[in-house]
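Escalated from tier 1: S-adenosylmethionine holo job.
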Amino acid sequence: MITVVGYDGGPLPDSARERLSRARLVMGGRRHLREVPLPEGVTTLALRDDPVAALTAVADEPGDVVVLASGDPGFFGVVRAVRRAVAPRPVEVLPALSSVALAFARAGVEWDDAVVVSAHGRDPRTALAVARSQPKVAVLTDERCGPAHLGAALRGRADRVLVVGERLGLPGERVVRVTPAEAEQGDWSDPNVVVVLPAQAADPGPRAVVAGHRGPQGWALPVAAYAHRDSMITKPEVRAVVLARLGPRLGDVVWDVGAGSGSVAVECALFGADVCAVERDPSDAERVRTNAAGAGVHVRVVEGVAPAALADLPDPDAVFVGGGGPEVVRACVGRRPARLVAALATLEQVAPVLAALTDDGTYAAEAVLLQVSALSPLGQGHRLVPANPVFVVSGELA
Ligand SMILES: C[S@@+](CC[C@H](N)C(=O)[O-])C[C@H]1O[C@@H](n2cnc3c(N)ncnc32)[C@H](O)[C@@H]1O
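Tier 2 regenerated the structure:
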């Protein structure tokens, strides 16, 4: 029998102690092998030293094996790797409390509406993007994405607080509630979990689905849903195509360059993306803030002129260029987003923008002209009211 036993610092249940007493081999992290009482003389193997060799040893062991892991090993834990290594043999899992459940419990906050993201052993980009874009997030950390990095990513965000849970359930446990600045400056011990919460408690009501972020109820919302200046707003039908090509998702970083009213930025944020809106006109920048607040999403508004204003932004997964033309598109291409979409009002811009995308062969690009006419009542019938045609150029990293 192969049993994966979770450990949260509390006493092991009888079932786990019984499996350990029968085990011929016990594998786990060094900390677990040290802290969990093991039967005398049992062979132990530390997972970290050589995970592939350790999992092969588990697969090859004919006798009973116990794999020790932290918290609930089926939750960002070792179960997936063990299951793969020993297939088709079944795996028994005896979970303990997940560090995420413990962190929310210590904070005294429910978590069925939280997004959980792991930075453990992964590129921290996704965890940082989720921490910036979502109101309630738990982050499984590692040395490249700990409390200080998360604090830095949330610098200046008075709307967020962080609860850092260090060594939860273990000797030396510490749970503190800090501002992003305090998190950035603090010294933190491992292992730890960071919970990001709204500074003002919000109550979204009961949930039926645990999916963290569920996505927007609708998009390509009507012009009337947004504050705008003289109809300077990406029209809903154009926005629908733009969003489809951008494909904004939870964990993505999206730039809306030349944001105008910010309708594209807001809708990308509704899809769960971490959005930076770049706008040079201060009154438009203010409108982007108003529209984001109205939609209940966070959009980082950068008041400045692209391409200079793009320098300090996190690398994007997708970019919308609503204003700026070929020079701005070229600068964005230099940051290698997976997808780039530009909306252009003049025919003359199309060829240079296509060239900016395809010049060095890294993007596959296409361009379409979108012409929309709305039906408007006229006498007993309807007439067509045409909106300005818009060219939409989109490129995808080849
Ligand atoms: C590979 S994940 C394992 C998560 C585990 N399956 C769980 O349910 O807690 C490792 C990360 O879990 C978190 N973690 C594990 N044990 C912890 C503890 N006792 N206190 C705080 N965080 C812990 C840390 O963020 C650590 O980097």
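The first helix runs from residue 14 to 22.
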